Every structure is written in C-alpha cells, then in structure tokens.
C-alpha cells in the first residue's frame, strides 16, 4: 500500500541550469522565509523551490501568497489583512 504523503506540487522534469532551476520553461527562485510550512515547497538539490510560483519572493512582496497551505489571509475590522497560521493540530492530524 502506498503510504507516501501526497504532494501538492512536484518538480518532475526540473533541471538545474547555470541560470537556476529550470522547470516547465521557467527559472525557479528558491522559496523565501514566508513559505516555511507551506506544503507546496519541494526540496531539490539542497534548496527548496515552489512549483506553483517561479519567484516566491515577488509573490510575497505583494501580500500573502494565495496558494499558501500554511497561512490564511483574513481582513480585520480596520480593513487590515492578517495572516492566520493554520492550526498545528490540524496539520499534525493530516501529516504523521
Ligand atoms: S505556494 Fe506560496 S507560500 Fe507556498 S511555497 Fe509557493 S510561494 Fe511559497
């Protein structure tokens, strides 16, 4: 029985090039600190990459990544966007 955790993203066919990690015609940049905990992060040759966004730093520079699996954006009463970490217990139940 397959007990591997199902990955949301994978870097099948990705290749390291002198410009960076090439995947589906894009050069991927390593993930940023905000991505820590996201299930889309995929390790590849000693670094972590996101198959969803080629440039995670750019994605986060415009606000919360809307594809992040570990945080959720909500707007509070003052209209400010807040990041809510998903409950660790939920993650633990899904994971191990
Ligand atoms: S989906 Fe967003 S938060 Fe998750 S690894 Fe990619 S850029 Fe980072």
From TrEMBL:
Protein name per its UniProtKB record: Uncharacterized protein
Protein source organism: Humidesulfovibrio mexicanus
Taxonomic placement: Bacteria, Pseudomonadati, Thermodesulfobacteriota, Desulfovibrionia, Desulfovibrionales
